[in-house]
Amino acid sequence: MMKLRIATGLGLVLLMATMIGSAKVSQAQDDGGVTLASLAGKFAARGSGFETVCFNTLFTALEDCATAPHVVPFNLTQIQHTTRDAAGNGCSISTTTSAPVFGSRFPAGVNTRTNVSTTTSFDPATGSGTGSGSQYVGGSCNGAVFDPTGSTKVATFTFSFDVSDSGNRIESITTGYSAITSAEPVSFPSVAGSIKGVVFSQTGIRLQPQD
Questions:
Q1: Which of 41, 116, 130, 181 shows the smallest number of beta carbons within 10 Å?
Q2: Are residues 177 and 49 in contact, defined by beta-carbon separation less than 8 angstroms?
Q3: What residues pair up with 122 in beta bridges, in sequence order?
Q4: What is the pLDDT of residues 106-162, one digit of tens each?
């Protein structure tokens, strides 16, 4: 059970950071809408939720939930920093803490992930949209551009979001998350199908520029 806290690194460390970007009010808002380009910039967010992680018999490795003998729900809390461009692409760094829902005598697990996303649809009139992305161990963000140097892809995800407060606040929710089999993270390598039942929502607030 000691390794349970490590497995949270595979969870949706979510990804919510990239799903949402910063928001800057554009002239288009005077006409009743927020443009995708006006959501470019930097964003800080906090979110929470839970996920189900599946383990092998001895809790020494993850296993596809279809065959895993142990299924453990985890609580998640996350903070993120995202940079978005005018086309709706984003790159973010997220830090997530997690612990088994039923409690544990071990410290909460902590992990950092790089999340890369793109907006797949956006309605300026309603301020609602959808997106998809990939999650990595390693790599870095150069603004909204992902630098894959030293990175390993561990998951893909989808999300929906709604913009409010003239584009300065974005609520987002995960609509899909799929782990990918890989050699990372070294302590607990990702396994396809080992993460299920992800429920995660997040609120992002635009970072105001310094005068």
A1: 181
A2: no
A3: 129
A4: 668 899 999 999 999 999 999 999 999 999 999 999 999 999 999 999 999 999 999
Cα(20)–Cα(79) distance, integer angstroms? 13
Residue indicated by tokens 């018999």: 57
Report the distance separating Cα 118 and Cα 162, nearest Å. Answer: 15
Task: Supply the DSSP symbol for 8.
Answer: G
Domain ranges for the chain: 4-38+46-199
Structure-block tokens of residue 63: 């296993």
What's this model's pTM, rounded to 2 decimal places?
A: 0.84
- 74 within 8 A of 8, measured Cβ to Cβ: yes
Residues shown for the chain: 211
Residue with tokens 């990702």: 190
Complete DSSP assignment for 121-183: EEETTTTEEEEEEEEEES-EEETTEEE-TT-EEEEEEEEEEEEEGGGTEEEEEEEEEEE---S
- Per the prediction, the chain carries an average pLDDT of 84
